[in-house]
Amino acid sequence: MFLKLLKLYNFRNIKTDSIAFEERVNFITGQNGAGKTNLIEAISILSTCKQLRGKSAAELVSWGKDEFSVFGLIASLSGDKEIGVSYG
After folding, report:
1. Are strands 2-11 and 14-20 parallel, antiparallel or unpaired?
2. What 3-state DSSP class applies to 27?
3. Cβ neighbours of residue 50 under 8 Å, at least 6 residues apart?
């Protein structure tokens, strides 16, 4: 089982984005402030429904927005499954 696709809406500094992952190894690189930690935080919320670093869910919403959504497509032996977490 692995995370095949991550979709983010109004999550911290990411307005709308879809990120595809490979089955084995994935590297996350980028400039400071590009959103690498936010991406990891989105995956954490999707898998555990808990925020990293003790943030409230309201702090994860993009500036000027009222809600966020994080969706994932999970590949498994029984087929792909979509899961999601929303706030607001």
Report:
1. antiparallel
2. coil
3. 44
Provide the pLDDT for residue 49. 82
Q: Structural domains in the chain?
A: 2-87 (3.40.50.300)
Q: What is the pTM of this model?
A: 0.87
Residue-wise burial string across 42-52, b where 16 or more C-beta atoms lie within 10 A, e elsewhere: bbebbeeeeee
- The predicted-structure confidence for 22-38, as pLDDT tens digits, reads as follows 999 999 999 999 999 99
Instruction: Report the distance separating Cα 87 and Cα 29, nearest Å.
Output: 27
Q: Are 10 and 65 in contact (CB under 8 A)?
A: yes
How far is Cα 55 from Cα 26, in angstroms, rounded to an integer? Answer: 26
Given a cut of 70, the residues of the chain with pLDDT beneath it are 54
Spatial contact of 3 and 62, defined as CB atoms under 8 Å apart: no
